[in-house]
Specification:
Elements: H1 18-33, E1 39-40, H2 57-64, H3 68-72, H4 81-92, E2 100-106, H5 108-120, E3 126-130, H6 136-143, E4 147-151, H7 162-175, E5 178-184, H8 197-211, E6 217-223, E7 250-257, E8 270-276, H9 279-295, H10 302-312, H11 315-346, E9 358-362, H12 366-375, E10 378-379, E11 381-383, E12 386-390, H13 396-399, H14 402-412
Parallel strand pairs: 1-10, 3-4, 3-5, 5-6, 6-7
Antiparallel strand pairs: 2-8, 7-8, 9-12, 11-12
Helix pairs in contact: 2-10, 4-10, 5-6, 7-8, 11-14, 12-14
Bound molecules: pyridoxal-5'-phosphate.
Pyridoxal-5'-phosphate (PLP) binds at residues 44, 108-110, 134, 184, 189, 223, 225, 257, 259, 265, 270.
GO molecular function, one term: transaminase activity
Keywords: Aminotransferase, Pyridoxal phosphate, Transferase
Protein name: Pyridoxal phosphate-dependent aminotransferase
Length: 417
């Protein structure tokens, strides 16, 4: 490295983003050869069957009706109270857990995860998450001078790996005062895996036993970025009920976001929602997270909050919102079903996909396979232990036949999955 004036903790940091890099090569290809010739499976947004970004119609209509004041005026640091109430309601629906529930507006789910890591772990602490996880977790954790610790999400037969989870968690509880866990379920990015209710029971029961009677705390960050496309509205939210009535040294924080559920990605709106049986912990949650909000992004985005408030206060609009989401959930499901069936037919191994924007094809040597596929104008994201396909962004027409092409590239590279 040449000359550097960065502080020690910042020296050498750079975000090598495999997703953005693949997306950039894809854009070049589209310019040269046209969109029809290219398959872009890198994008983490919903793209319709015609190749256009989906903005929910109810969101478009509502955005257009906002007043200049609603768009530009400063919002209160923790967010408009109406927004926070709506976020809590929309997040939990019929499965609101019992206890003190507090929320702070954040710039997307990212802001919620960052703030939870920042305020509930110490510099140098390890933060526990799954080996199959969204790459930005590493940046968030490292940028705050914490260390990422991975446990294995899946067993060999495709179930939640309770053994790996409990061993790693126990180890961290033994050596740290606070342990922050980030669990992205349902619709895990990149696998599409999600915990069932029994698996949630086992996770929470182990968390309880790990800190029972101890002066130790566990903060469970529940990342539900893809919640609204993960199944029937009430059914996919049932696990939230389990976050109620936990001992006061266990704090679930839901990282809620309007990015996907309201297709407001670039508007940067989300919330961190804390659930606790202790009023002190609840008051502290509001105080310290509000403080961090003030110290980082300051005021949350007014326009996005008003869009969300205007929709959710009107039951007729909520019905339209739900219907649109259900339609896109179905579209993504149909794409995933095609890919999974064809993968099974041609012997391409994939990780257990239940719902969500992505399917993962496990392998070592994904770079080589992705490079070969790019020669055929197919753009997927190479990960350390596999390839990520964004079923949210590839049309059914283009998904058809894709599994066989990936399988051929895997075989040609001499890779055994
Ligand atoms: C797993 C996961 N969590 C959280 C997010 C947060 O996104 P945002 O900050 O836009 O809400 C994303 C977005 O890609 C994600 O994939």
């Amino acid at each position: 490295m040449g000359m550097s004036v960065a502080a020690n903790h910042a020296k050498g940091k750079f975000a090598a983003d495999a997703i953005m890099a693949a997306a950039a090569r894809c854009t070049e290809d589209v310019k040269k050869n046209g969109a029809d010739a290219v398959i872009n499976g890198t994008i983490g947004s919903i793209i319709d069957e015609n190749g256009d970004l989906v903005v929910l119609q109810i969101v478009k209509d509502t955005l257009k009706q906002l007043t200049p004041n609603q768009i530009v005026a400063y919002a209160p640091i923790p967010g408009f109270p109406e927004y926070l109430d709506a976020a809590i309601d929309q997040c939990f629906c019929d499965s609101r857990p019992e206890g003190y529930i507090r929320a702070i507006a954040t710039p997307g789910g990212s802001g919620a995860i960052h703030t939870a890591v920042h305020n509930y772990s110490e510099p140098g602490d390890e933060v526990l998450t799954t080996d199959w996880c969204w790459g930005a977790y590493r940046n968030i954790i490292r940028d705050d001078n914490r260390v990422l610790r991975e446990f294995e999400l899946l067993t060999d037969d495709g179930k939640f790996n309770m053994k790996s989870f409990s061993e790693n968690l126990q180890d961290l509880v033994n050596k740290q005062h606070n342990t922050v866990i980030i669990l992205n379920s349902p619709a895990n990015n990149p696998t599409g895996f999600g915990l069932n209710l029994d698996e949630w029971d086992a996770v929470l029961s182990f968390i309880k036993s790990a800190v029972e009677g101890k002066d130790k705390n566990i903060i469970l960050v529940s990342d539900v970025a893809y919640l609204d496309y993960s199944g029937e509205k009430q059914e996919c939210r049932r696990f939230f009920k389990k976050f109620g009535n936990l001992p006061a040294n266990i704090l679930p924080i839901v990282a809620y976001t309007c990015s996907k559920g309201f297709t407001l990605y670039g508007q940067r709106m989300g919330a961190m929602i804390g659930i606790t049986s202790s009023e002190d912990v609840a008051d502290e949650f509001t105080a310290i997270n509000k403080y961090t909000a003030r110290a980082t992004w300051s005021n949350p985005t007014s326009s996005a909050m008003w869009t969300m408030i205007e929709i959710t206060k009107d039951p007729e609009k909520v019905a339209r919102l739900d219907a649109e989401r259900a339609q896109y959930f179905q579209m993504i499901k149909e794409r995933a079903d095609i890919f999974m069936k064809e993968a099974a037919d041609c012997g391409l191994k994939i990780l257990p996909y239940l719902s969500g924007f992505f399917i993962t094809i496990p392998m070592i040597g994904s770079d080589k396979v992705c490079a070969a596929l790019e020669k055929e104008h197919i753009y997927l994201v190479p990960l350390k232990k596999g390839i990520r396909l964004a079923v949210c962004s590839v049309s059914k027409k283009k998904i058809a036949g894709l599994a066989a092409k990936v399988k051929a590239a895997v075989d040609a590279a001499g890779i055994v999955q």
